[in-house]
Design brief:
- By secondary structure, the chain is an alpha+beta fold.
- Among the domains are: 192-347, Dipeptidylpeptidase IV, N-terminal domain (Methanol Dehydrogenase, Chain A), CATH 2.140.10.30; 477-722, Alpha/Beta hydrolase fold, catalytic domain (Rossmann fold).
- Helix content is 16%, strand content 33%.
- The strands form 10 sheets. The protein has an 8-stranded mixed β-sheet with strand order 37-38-40-39-41-42-43-44. Strands 1, 2, 3, 4 and 5 form a 5-stranded mixed β-sheet that branches. Strands 14, 15, 16, 19 and 20 form a 5-stranded antiparallel β-sheet that branches.
- Helix 1 (19-25) runs antiparallel to helix 12.
- The protein is globular.
Length: 729
């Protein structure tokens, strides 16, 4: 099926030296666009972040007044820092790496319940600002100067500040300690939770998420305020059982290696417990939460709101069962409210479990091949509507869901109105806010970037200002469903192509948890630019990727190589049957992370189909990847060694007969460079020529502009040479 495209509705003209530079400079065109929305419960205002231009990475905090339609800059990061450069503490650098943050300035904030105040960290310092009042939109004093953020007392290295719901105290992490400070008075901060026993070489932290929680579970925080602001639930993490790994920068031999705790598959995880702690100076009551941590060692999520008691989601290490628990904070005792089990692994859309305002539990069930929401034990979404994410819950549920894999729309459900579809854009849409005012974000193939609008019931939508640049590339994508599995595929041909054979580049991710074939223009810019250099670019989502239900996702259980590679081959053959201009004698494949693994796998296992590979940050031996992700799909390596063997690239090394370039950041603390070095060593011993490009100082997220630009151009140049096609980028 073809999706119509057209020019974007807004955006300044681009400057620079071509698309690779523009994409790198604009952080993939995310700068200047509004993001990170918080809707006030009374619907009067919306807080959000935005940088001042499409090439300026410094985010500011803004407030949009719903009544007047006025946007007000509440905190400008550059002004707050007084022109000084931002110095990030190591914990903040690690947090941004885990969240794939590409921008700077104010990249996160948190509000009180009324969304009248916000706290944020900047340069490791703690700041507090008002969101209503003198000088702000809707205050009645628009002639006055806007409020200036206040610096609160805190030690250096503040990370993840969050005010309590009443706006009285602000909690924050500093090193391995959780602290708090009064928001409205000049008072010293105090320690909420720290480790009294200094044994264990300082490996115990309070209030922070452990590595696998932040990297794999989607839990980036480690403490949660009580609705009355008088206490908190705090995660205590003991990382001492976890293996010690090191990252070094060979380009700076005088710099000491960095020591990290990395839970590689089959080895011990950090020990995580949860405590109920009073938020008082000098320390108060501290009570350990009781659940069967021997059976359920993973603390996946915590929810504590005014609608009901705290909710915990805990999971077995083998991923075959999870439990939803309610907590009595007085006794510390938990009670199971829901349970899920699966012979492969359990999973769920993000945002659950949670409560509705009336006290009904919101959970999910795999039913009739569909991820369906249940409220109070009753299913409220129909078969065929795949729930992707629950965005907010309160008076109603707001969530994103799909009836076809390439399209996700915003939906809501409430006891009074039932199920409602909020958007019909035919792209990728979501909504924030569970009341009469919602922020709706839509990305489609018809315009560039995200269209962000504030929807108030009974009024016309109002667009927030978007300063993101318009790309120099306009993608023209044709979508297909091919083969016996109706694989979802998108193809970009060179603009103006009128016929003739084209070399092919397949550009998959292909693995669990991420989907590339979506009806959103932003996801096709790089593919179109690559196509314009003289290629047909084919992107396919196979078994294991999201959007097609529980059974589809579990097709890769105990085998991360066979099904995903088979589906890439089937997608290529299916598209070529409909597009005869694809030259199947010249097929390359490129990707990053799991896509890098799949690219290397393709030329090692199927050189009859794939003739060159550009593999970035590939996992080459799953025994070197982390516990939570790897054991979910391949099981424990001691119990399923055959799964690790069949999914490894190392045994395939001696069969390499095609050009292969391996690219890896030397500072990558997610997929360590040991993966590329192990494969390269095996290839060398097998006397198989290949190329290795080490990137000094680069992590798994290639945020440096020169690196991001260079990799895009280098990949095209590599394929021009490897596939014997004329021309150069």
């Amino acid at each position: 099926m073809a999706v119509p495209t057209g020019p974007g509705p807004r955006g300044s003209g681009a400057t620079g030296t071509g698309f690779p530079r523009q994409q790198a400079r604009t952080r993939r065109f995310t700068l200047g666009a509004p993001r990170s929305f918080t809707v006030a419960p009374d619907g009067s205002r919306v807080a959000f972040l935005r940088s001042p231009a499409g090439d300026d990475p410094s985010n500011s905090l803004w407030v949009y007044d719903v009544g007047s339609g006025v946007e007000t800059e509440v905190a400008n990061a550059k002004a707050v820092l007084g022109g000084e450069s931002e110095q990030l503490p190591p914990e903040e650098r690690a947090r941004r790496e885990r969240t794939r943050e590409l921008a700077g300035g104010i990249v996160a904030y948190a509000c009180d319940r009324a969304v009248e105040h916000a706290a944020f960290s900047l340069g490791g310092q703690l700041w507090w600002t008002g969101l209503v009042g003198t000088g702000l939109a809707g205050s009645g004093h628009s002639e006055d100067v806007a409020q200036t953020p206040t610096k609160l007392a805190a030690p250096a290295g503040v990370v993840d500040p969050r005010p309590d719901p009443t706006g009285t105290l602000v909690a924050f992490c500093a090193g391995r300690t959780l602290c708090a400070v009064a928001a409205a008075a000049e008072r010293p901060y105090f320690v909420v939770a720290e480790e009294q026993d200094k044994a264990g070489e300082g490996e115990v932290s309070w209030g922070s998420a452990e590595f696998i929680a932040a990297e794999e579970m989607g839990r980036s925080r480690g403490y949660w305020w009580a609705p009355d602001g008088g206490s908190l639930l705090v995660a205590r993490v003991d990382a001492s059982p976890v293996a010690t790994w090191w990252t070094a920068d060979p380009a700076s031999p005088a710099k000491a290696p960095e020591r990290r705790r990395y839970p590689v598959a089959g080895t011990p995880d950090a020990v995580v417990s949860l405590w109920h702690v009073e938020a008082v100076p000098g320390g108060g009551r501290r009570l350990k939460v009781a659940w069967d941590a021997e059976r359920y060692p993973y603390l996946v999520s915590v929810h504590w709101g005014p609608e009901g008691p705290p909710l915990l989601l805990v999971e077995q290490r083998d991923h075959k069962a999870c439990s939803v628990l309610s907590l009595d904070v007085v006794s510390g005792v938990t009670e199971e409210l829901a349970h899920m089990a699966d012979p492969a692994w359990v999973s769920w859309p993000s945002g659950v479990p949670t409560w509705l305002e009336g006290g009904e539990l919101v959970w999910v069930r795999a039913d009739e091949g569909t991820w369906r929401l249940e409220v109070g034990g009753e299913l409220v979404t129909p078969p065929g509507l795949q729930v992707r994410e629950v965005v907010s819950a309160g008076r109603s549920l707001v969530f994103s869901a799909s009836t076809e894999a390439e399209v996700a729309e915003a939906w809501s459900w409430s006891p009074g109105e039932g199920l409602r579809q909020l958007t019909r854009q035919g792209g990728v849409s979501s909504a924030f806010g569970d009341g009469p005012v919602k922020v709706v974000i839509s990305r489609t193939m018809r315009w560039h970037g995200a269209k962000v609008e504030v929807h108030e019931e009974g009024s016309e939508p109002k667009a927030l200002v978007n300063m993101a640049e318009t790309p120099e590339v306009e993608p023209l994508v044709t979508f297909f469903r091919v083969g016996e599995r109706a694989l979802s595929v998108g193809v970009c041909l060179p603009r103006g192509h009128t016929g003739g054979k084209l070399p092919v580049i397949m550009a998959p991710y292909g693995g669990p948890g991420h989907q590339r074939v979506m009806a959103s223009r932003a996801g096709w810019l790089e593919a179109q630019w690559t196509a314009d250099q003289g290629f047909a670019v084919v992107v396919a989502d196979g078994r294991g990727t999201p959007g097609r239900g529980p059974a589809w996702e579990r097709e890769v259980y105990l085998d991360l190589a066979g099904p995903v590679l088979e589906d890439q081959v089937a997608a290529l053959e299916g598209v070529a049957a409909q597009l005869p201009d694809l030259d199947l004698s010249r097929v390359g494949v490129q990707g990053w992370s799991f896509g890098g693994y799949l690219s290397a796998l393709a030329v090692l296992a199927r050189p009859d189909v794939f003739h060159a590979a550009f593999a970035g940050a590939p996992v080459t031996d799953w025994r070197l990847y982390d516990t939570y992700y790897t054991e979910r799909f391949l099981g424990h390596p001691d119990r399923h060694p055959e799964a690790y063997e069949r999914s490894s690239l190392i045994p395939l090394a001696e069969g390499l007969s095609r050009p292969l370039m391996l690219v890896h950041g030397l500072s990558d603390d997610n997929v360590y460079v040991a993966h590329t070095l192990e494969l390269s060593g095996a290839l060398f011993r097998a006397k198989r020529p290949h190329s290795v490009l080490p990137l000094p100082g680069v992590t798994h997220v290639t945020s440096q502009e020169a690196v991001a630009e260079g990799l895009l151009a280098l990949g095209v140049q590599f394929f021009h040479q490897a596939l014997g096609s004329p021309g150069s980028p």
